[in-house]
Every structure is written in structure tokens, then in C-alpha cells.
Amino acid sequence: MPANGAPTKITQGTRTKGGIGESTLRPDGTLKVTGEFAYSSDMWHEDMLWGQILRSTVAHAEIVSIDTSEALAMAGVYAVMTYDDLPTDVRNYGLEIQDTPVLAHGKVRHHGEPVAIVAADHPETARRAAAKIKVDYRELPVITDEASATAPDAILVHEGRDDHHSGHVPHPNIVHRQPILRGDAAAAAERADFVVKGEYTFGMQDQAFLGPESGLAVPDEDGGVHLYIATQWLHSDLKQIAPVLGLPERKVRMTLSGVGGAFGGREDLSMQIHACLLAMRTGKPVKIVYNRFESFFGHVHRHPAKLYYEHGATKDGKLTHVKCRIVLDGGAYASASPAVVGNASSLSIGPYVVDDVDIEAIALYTNNPPCGAMRGFGAVQACFAYEAQMDKLADAVGMDRVAFRQLNAMEQGTIMPTGQPVDSPAPVAELLRRVKAMPLPPERQWESSEGSDVRQLPGGLSNTTHGEGVVRGVGYAVGIKNVGFSEGFDDYSTAKVRMEVIAGQPVATVHTAMAEVGQGGVTVHAQIARTELGVTQVTIHPADTQVGSAGSTSASRQTYVTGGAVKNSCELVREKVLEIGRRKFGSYHPAWATAELLLEGGKVVTDGGEVLADLVDVLEGESVEVEAEWRHRPTEAFDLRTGQGNGHVQYSFAAHRAVVEVDTELGLVKVIELACAQDVGKALNPLSVIGQIQGGTLQGMGVAVMEEIIVDPKTAKVRNPSFTDYLLPTILDTPIIPVDVLELADDHAPYGLRGIGEAPTLSSTPAVLAAIRNATGLELNRTPVRPEHLTGTA
Amino acid sequence: MRVNFTVNGRPQEADDVWEGESLLYVLRERLGLPGSKNACEQGECGSCTVRLDGEPVCACLVAAGQVEGREVVTVEGLADFAKQRAERGGCATGACGTDGKAGTSLQDAQHWAAKGQDSQTGEGTELSPVQQAFIDAGAVQCGFCTPGLLVAADEMLERNPNPTDADIREALSGNLCRCTGYEKIMDAVRLAAARQGEAV
Amino acid sequence: MDFLRPASWEEALAAKAEHPTAVPIAGGTDVMVEINFDHRRPEYLLDLNRIGDLYEWEVGEDSVRLGASVPYTRIMEHLRAELPGLALASHTVASPQIRNRGGVGGNLGTASPAGDAHPALLAAGAEVEVESVRGSRRIPIDEFYTGVKRNALAADELIRAVHIKKADGPQQYSKVGTRNAMVIAVCAFGLALHPETRTVRTGIGSAAPTPVRAKAAEEFLNAALEEGGFWDNGKIITPSVAKQFAELCSGACNPIDDVRGTASYRRHAVGVMARRTLTWTWESYRGTDGRANQKGSVA
């Protein structure tokens, strides 16, 4: 036995089937293809009621009165609740700033804000009752942009702010401001031989997860409530829900139901508190399911942004400086706006070496729809702008656009604008080389001996061209995204791992609160357990709040952080298993005390391959269980004046080449190919990695050519809250997406892995825009590009 | 009102149906068949695709009263449906893909009945070729679009056993997926077609 | 809400006479969206699914009698030769699932300017057969659309069929949407050459309060083709003629700005589609076109 009891140093798990590095299949795959997988909207309970939310029909108004009497009098209606019916003094919630009313109080601040809730015996009864609630609004002028938000006489969206950002923002209608100053941008600009400036606009994108916001709240006998819910972070929900209900956290039991996609849109609460309130009021289970119309009002969106950039370069192509100002529209409530500002500012210059920068990012409070987390937030908007600038500047210098990027590409050791050194591989130039090296798709693929296949042309089945006006364009882009929670946030996860013998087999059970939203975390956790514990059978326990927090399924962090926690807990379990083995069998073989021991194939073996014991025998009559928290390296806050600080834990990089064909007369675009190269550190499950990259790539394409929530600037009302007019790419719009995966280990991360989910969403959009510019010769400073922008008919 | 129809080969009766209810609501909330999904309820996403007398349709756009006396196949019955089609010769021969007509006649659908299956873990569940291919190819992420895609893809392969990529894209153009970027879905359908070809 | 399930056409007419506010539902692709999203709560839903007659079509000497509920999928499969413009339009309708349910009767009943069938019907020439307990009548398609989402039906009438002239020459149909499938028209254009009468007919969708024909453009082109002897000599239409035709088609639009597109874009796009569809049909008429063949499965 090791004298000091320190963990045995081993190279574990390389011979266990189904471990990390293999493309094992999803454990929930069979349930999902048979329709048996229970999503949050599939929950059903005897005697359950249906909840319905009444939402504001105007964006900004004082509520003069609410009359619920007619609704309450309806047959089949069990409860109608407004602000006045809330059970405690805690009546707001929020991720970071608790500024969001559970139900509107005296005022509504955006179109679609919840005003009242109803529970009834049928969804139609609930809808009719909600329609009978009379709300008298006195409309107020709407704040919709920076000018109206910061005008001297601007109405304050939130009066009397006392949150932790309120002290340092220049105006109460600014949620958060983060400047980053490094070097001397003004002096560096003097050295520039070429300077390019640009103003860019990024439209409001929706996560558009397919599974609508939904859940079932069941009252418990002890006065508490059990909520079956689709979310990204159970414990964060719990922390916001319990105080509003006036319950201790232990009386609010939360179980993760099937989650039909998330992409950031389930980081904030939607119907959680409403369902619990109605369940507690009526004493009956209450189910709430949004329809698609309501879903567009029921979650935050990606921040639309205005971005102002100045880049300079010397005549040999070296970047001299970047000045930029990024204005994000956070809408009526803060949500994740502060973190979006942090990402946008700290990643605003992209993966390039620039010593002299002058950066500012702000998020506004307006009466537009609230905006918050969506895949790649902050970094997505910035990447669209800085990559457009890099093309412009390459053209000004007279260099090839890819070569210009490669010349200025960051690498390991580069200092970020925040002063933080990049201390793991940053293969930016190599990723660009790889996408450029891929063969281009053949020209004019729509032509065949039988004629034109319109399905392969811009316009598709709509039969708008048989090749007329079609011009090809190619564009490149690369991006940088931080992984995990930054800026000093205590980012940790918890894993409970148990090992025991069941039916004569060693079985590991992994229990975390990680929200599986489709990304495949459950697959990876089983792989990690197999690798670390040398078993084939792994049970993934349903995620709930009976185990410690896993943090959010966002920020590309779950495989890193909860994967890290599972690995860590498995290691601790392994040590305990070996201790039992030594206790039981140590006297039979000297290797128990002297050799490095591994768990493989259900056995304890020496690193030389000699079998010492079956795990079944070691675990006979015993089980081992460990629940432990695990943290990545700590980060620091950014200085509020200079933006300096080691704010990020890891970066993720992807590059894209887009090939488009544009019907230049009609302004219709078909993206032919979106080739991606990404460094993933270590691909724990290569099939899932590629799936993430392809999915992220297509979301980036969506906001390049079709996806946008359109808000009327006069009324701040949403004009297209449906899948008829908010368009997602169909399979006929989708290009081929070849993926080249690079695996350069980050020595600070578990297995050397790198968070992967967001980076492909960043560079996809600017690559498509660059390709369209290449095809049309147009400047195109906004995304998404609509046909009218390509035809001069906007 | 009361509605009587056949789902996955079994007669079903739904009572107290509100006249504005859709087939989708009746399946999900009254018959305990939530496999057909409620992503948009406006016919734009295809996640509720079922076969109504053999034709793929959006269950959200069929009024409950319209299915009186008709045959519906949902994702829950897809494996049995495919198996019985194969046993009956069905379109595994490729014959019904050639004339461009839908391959499952009402008569075929009437001969068909679902069998019980272990639904708790999914282990030991018999799957149709297209279901298996979706798992194997990594075409499932969140899985919310999956049931509708499976019903649509299965019907296309019944009609057209050797689809080109453009054929697959056209046939699945009414089914939105937000997770995968569709590439693995293409792989899955190609895989199912190839396996179907080998099986003949 | 009441759900009326007539088993026959006569029963349906009687029900509609008794309940003039009853909303007919066939494919459900418009009505159910409105019900699901709480935009409409009709007192009566009148289900037409059980009336088999509405799902049938007859190909006659000069025209096709198309039952109001014949799904778009069937039109694509079976009527491509007789009704090429409508078959092309049918192929642009939404998705395969919707095409399996929806039919021309629904498009006409809703009378949305964005309905995909309208430009093809206007270009081909058609009459809408409507009936009530009072009797049957045929409404020429040019008189059918009376306003935004309004048509010439009386409250007690139902659409039974559409009589569409069989193609006597090439027909084309184009629709602009901002994605490549499953999209509502930003604008659409149908064009039919009628060599027998030496005329050209057009139809424009989503670019005016109702579907419209570009009559000035038709008259101009008819005259130009006649003057130049084009119908006989089969020459390529001169670019200036095509250009003026396109401009006149743009001029026939009276569009609005909305979330789907700007008025200015719609005018522009209709002109482009007019020029292109004229080129495609004329090339086809001249018998020189090897490119007009569209692939795409038909079911």
C-alpha cells in the first residue's frame, strides 16, 4: 500500500470498450426514436390543470387596472393570479440582477410581458378565461435604441436601480459597460499606413429550440412542489423559484424532463414559477405548454447589436490598432446582459495579435424584447464585425484575405487585450490553412443532362432561376470564444458516482444535475466512467436537485466542467475501490502494494497487464459512492476602467470557408458549402463533436441569410412571432458541412479537451457574409442579409 | 364530441373532445401517445408528422373530428409498421417506388396492428431500419424533430428506395431540425436506404 | 364551437345554408393554424373531408375539372401535362405534408394574396364552380378575388371545383421566398402562353391586395408578338420587348412593405420573374429549350 495514501498515478482506461475517444451511441437514442422519451411538454398527471399566461399587448405602459372577475367566474377555471396574489415579498427574479417581475407590477416594459396567469381544466378554457381578464394600459413612449435610451429626458426603464452595475454605468438605461484599454491606440493609429472603419448591425436572432417552454408542477404533501421541467440549469432555477414561492429550497424538488433543445434560451426562467404558483394555489398538478407564438415572447433572444470599428495596419500587413464600440440591446430586463458585455468586449478584436486597443461594450435597457444567452453570445456579434473589417483591411493593404489573417493570427503566448496570456494552443493560422486547403465543391452542380435541378439553385423549389444571374462567391472567417464562466465566477460542477455489483456485474452510476439538452453530455459521462472505472455498464441517473449543482449547459462548458467533475469523482471512487481491494486481497499478491493499478475490463490489473482481482469480488458486499465538487482554474473580474484581468479560463477556435451561389438579380442566396476546421483539444466522442460543429455552423448560417426577429421601431412590438415569418433553414437550404477536427491538447483541461459548442456558430455568419460580398461586390454591413439588401430595394 | 379512429392498428375512442382540438392534441393528451411533437402547431416544422390513411401529414393541422373512422400511424407504431410492411413484401421490394404513388394502401394499413414493447429503458426494443439508422448515424441530438423526421423519411424510402441527396432533401424539407445541421440526418437516411437495399 | 360532418355534398350545402357563418375545413392548413393560435373561434366548423367528390378530377376536352380538395401532391403527380403552371405552383406550396392535405379550394376560399395557386389559375384561365342550395354558378377567376382575403362567394356558397383551361402552350411559375422550401411567397408570378388564341396571360401573387393579372403587360406583349410575327417565325423575343414586358408587370403591382419584403423589392422581383418566365416559356414554345425541365420528386 502506498505509504502516504496519495492517489495512485496511473494511465487508466485505455483498453476499456466504450470509453473516451470512441463514438459511442446516445443512451437515450432508442427512447428518442420510438417517441417514448418524455419531454417536458409530454408530462401528464391525473386531474391536472392547464396554465395559461396573459401577456401584455403593448411594449411600455402603466397598468391602470386589472379586472379578473369575469375570468374567475367561468366554469372550469380554478385560479386567476396577478401580482397582488404573489405569496411573498420576493416578486422578482433574474440570473444576475433580479429585475424581472414574476407578474407585471404597475408597469409593463416589453411586448408580451406576463401580466396574469390562469389555471383551468382544459387549455381552451384557460385561453378563454385569460381573454376575459381586462387590463387597462396607459401607454408610455418606447425606448428602442441607444439614442432614445440615453437622451437627457429619457424615461428610465428601471427606476431606482441599486444592482452592482448601477454604480459604474454612465446612464441608468445602460445595464453594464466594459471598456478595455491596452497600449495606446491613438499613438498606434499614427503608425498605420491603412485605416478602415465600419459600422455594422447584427439582427435579433432567436434560439428557436423546437421543444416549447413547458413543464408540470405537482404539489407535494409537505406543502412543497415538484417541478418537472426543461431547463439548462436546475439549481439556478431553484434559487430563483423558491424565494418567490416562499419555500425553502428543499421543498422545491426539481427533475429534469426531456429538453427539446436550448441554445441559451432556457437559461432564464419562463413558466417555472407560474406553474408552481398555480399548483400551490389550486392544490392540483398544473401543466403549462407554450405554443410557438408564445415561445417567441417566453424567452430571451440573442442581443441585436450596433458595432463601430476602426482597424489599422502597416503596409506590410501588420495590425497596428483596433478601436471599437459595441452597443448591445438588452431589452427590458437584464438577463445575461452583463456577461454578454464581458464577452463582447474581451473578444472584440478576434483571434489576432493587437497590442494597442481602445474598446468599449455596453448593453442597453430598452423596451425591446429582453435579450440574453444564445450560443456564442457577445463573441458572435463581434466576430461578424471584426471579420468584415479584416477583409476590408486585407483589401486595403493588398494582401490575400486568408494570408492577412494568418499573418496577424494569435498563437499560444499571445497577450489578449485584457492582458491575459493565452496559455494553451491557439492554432488560428493552421485552422485557416485547413479550411482553405479543402477542395472546392464543383461549379454549376444544378446542371445535368436532364436540365436544371432547381433544388440545387438559389430559390430552390420556388423555381426562380434555371441558372440566370447566379454568381458564386467564397469567403473565410475565424473566431474565438471563451469556454466556461468567466470574470471571477465560481464555476464548478458536482458529480456523484457510485460503483457496485448488480446482477453479478460491476456497474457504475453517474448522477449529476447536468441538463442534457441534446448535446450528448449523458453519452460522454458514461464514456468517462467507463474509461476511469474499467466497467462497461454505466447507468446515468436522471438529473435532479438531489445532487449538487452542475452549473449551466452553456458557455461550451459542460464536457469540461461536469465532465471534469465526473472524471474527478470517478478517480476518487477508483481510489476507494483499490483501497477495498488492498484490504481484501493485498496479502495475496505483492503487486497490490508495489505496482501501478488500473481498472480495466471489470478487473483490477497492474500496468503490466497482470490481473489481480475481479471487480465483482472486490465489490462483493460493498458499494462505493462519492459526491464531489470540481472546479476549473479560477478567473478574475475585468477591471471596470481598463478591462485588464485574467478573465477567461480557456478559448475555443473555429474557422469556416463559405461557398455561396447568389442569384444577383433576385437577391436570393444558396449556401453551397460551409467547411469548418476546429480545434477541439480532445474529441471525447467524435460523432457528437462533428454533430455539434455542424449544428452550430447552421445556426450561424441562419442569422446570415434568413433568421431575424423584427421589432417595430415605433411600437417596440414583435412583428413576426411565428415559424411562418421567423425562418429557420430547412434541409433544402443547408449546405454540405465538411468538418476537419484538430486535437491539440489543452494541458489545463480534463483529457486536454476544449469546449466546442459555440465556436462554430461564430465564424459561420461572417464567412457567409464574406462569400456573398465576394459574389456581389456589395458592402453588406448588416446581418441577416435579405433579398432587398442585394438588389438595392431595401 | 366523440371521435373513433384507428391508431397504430388499434381502435381508439376519444371522448369530450373540444371541436377545435387537433389530431395532435388528441394523440398526445387523450390517447397517451406523445411521440408526435408539438413544436410549432402551425404546419411549419413537421415534428408532428403522422400518416393519415398512409399519407404523411401534420397532425397539428388535422381537426380531431376529421379523423373519424380513419387510420393513423405515429412514431410509436413505426417499428411495427415497417416490420409488417417488410413481411408483407411491401415496398422493401422497391416496387411501389416506381409509380410515384404512396406505397401503403389503406388496405395495408388495416391489416396492421401494433404489438407491445418494453418502453422503460428502450433496451431490447425492435426498431425500424430508419430508426436504427438515426441512432447509428448520430442524427439524434435533442430528438424533438426526430419522430416527425422518422415518419417522413420512412414514407419516402417506401416510395423511393434509392433516393438521391436532392430527393432526400426535398422529401424532408417540411421537417425542421435546430440541433444537427441536418448532415447526420442525411447520413442516416442514406444509411437506411443502403441497408434496405442490402436486405432485398 | 360545433363540428359539422356532412357525408355528402348535398348535406354540406344544407349545412352551409343553415349556418352561413360555418367555416369550411378541408386540408385544415389555414383554418387549424388560426384555431391553434387563437386567432379564430368559428361557431361552426364544416368538415368537407368526407365528400369524396371534392377529391376527384376529370380531364375534359378543353379543361380540367379539379375538385376543390384535390391535394397539391395529386396535382403535381397527375396533372403536370394538362396544368403545368398549376403543377409548378403546387410544388412550391409549403412542405410535402401540407401538399398532401391542402388543395386549390382552400387557396380560393382563403383568398390570401399570397396563395400559391392564384397566379397559375389567373395565367391559365379558370372558372370557380360554386354552389349553394339555391343553385350552382361559375365565377370567372378574374372576378373571383374581391379584396384582401375576400372573394366573390356568397355566405351560403361552397367551392366545389375549379375548371381550368388545359394548357395549349408552355406555362411557367416562379415564386420568391427567403428560403428554398416551405416559405410563404414574398411575391409570385405565373405566365401561360396560349398559342391557339395567340395570347399571353399572367398572374401576380403577393404584390397587390388581391392576386392580379398584369393586363397592360399582356396587351403589350400580345401586340408585340403579333406585330413581329413571332408566333409564326418562332424568333427569339427581343430583349427590349422582354424588358418592357417586365416593366409593365412590375407596374401592375401595388405592393406593401411587410415583414416578408419591401414593396420596392416586390416590384423589382416581379419584373425579374416576368422576364425569366417569358424567356423559359418562349424557348419552350420555340422548341429549343433543353433547360426548362425541373427535377424534383412529385409525391
From TrEMBL, chain A:
InterPro entries linked to this entry: Ald_Oxase/Xan_DH_a/b, Ald_Oxase/Xan_DH_a/b_sf, Ald_Oxase/xanthine_DH-like, AldOxase/xan_DH_MoCoBD1, AldOxase/xan_DH_MoCoBD2, AldOxase/xan_DH_Mopterin-bd_sf
Superkingdom assignment: Bacteria
Domain Aldehyde oxidase/xanthine dehydrogenase a/b hammerhead: 34-141
Gene3D superfamilies: Aldehyde oxidase/xanthine dehydrogenase, a/b hammerhead, Aldehyde oxidase/xanthine dehydrogenase, molybdopterin binding domain
Region spans: Disordered: 1-26, 442-465
Molecular functions per Gene Ontology: iron ion binding; oxidoreductase activity
PANTHER family documented for this protein: XANTHINE DEHYDROGENASE (PTHR11908), XANTHINE DEHYDROGENASE SUBUNIT D-RELATED (PTHR11908:SF157)
Protein name as annotated: Xanthine dehydrogenase subunit D
Organism of provenance: Streptomyces caeruleatus
UniProtKB/TrEMBL annotation, chain B:
Keywords (A to Z) from UniProt: 2Fe-2S, Iron, Iron-sulfur, Metal-binding, Oxidoreductase
Membrane keyword on record: no
Xref: InterPro entries: 2Fe-2S-bd (IPR002888), 2Fe-2S-bd_dom_sf (IPR036884), 2Fe-2S_ferredoxin-like_sf (IPR036010), 2Fe-2S_ferredoxin-type (IPR001041), 2Fe2S_fd_BS (IPR006058), Beta-grasp_dom_sf (IPR012675), Diverse_Oxidoreductases (IPR051452)
Pfam families in the cross-refs: Fer2, Fer2_2
Boundaries of every 2Fe-2S ferredoxin-type domain copy: 1-78
One GO molecular-function entry: oxidoreductase activity
PANTHER family referenced in this protein's UniProt entry, alphabetically: OXIDOREDUCTASE WITH IRON-SULFUR SUBUNIT, XANTHINE DEHYDROGENASE IRON-SULFUR-BINDING SUBUNIT XDHC-RELATED
Protein name: Oxidoreductase
Natural source organism: Streptomyces caeruleatus
UniProtKB/TrEMBL annotation, chain C:
Domain of life per record: Bacteria
Pfam families given in the database record: CO_deh_flav_C, FAD_binding_5
Molecular function, one GO term: oxidoreductase activity
PROSITE patterns noted in UniProt: FAD_PCMH
Listed InterPro entries: CO_DH_flav_C (IPR005107), CO_DH_flav_C_dom_sf (IPR036683), Diverse_Substr_Oxidored (IPR051312), FAD-bd_PCMH (IPR016166), FAD-bd_PCMH-like_sf (IPR036318), FAD-bd_PCMH_sub1 (IPR016167), FAD-bd_PCMH_sub2 (IPR016169), Mopterin_DH_FAD-bd (IPR002346)
Keywords per UniProt: FAD, Flavoprotein, Oxidoreductase
Domain FAD-binding PCMH-type: 1-169
PANTHER family listed in its UniProt record: XANTHINE DEHYDROGENASE SUBUNIT C-RELATED
Name under which the protein is recorded: Carbon monoxide dehydrogenase
Lineage: Bacteria, Bacillati, Actinomycetota, Actinomycetes, Kitasatosporales
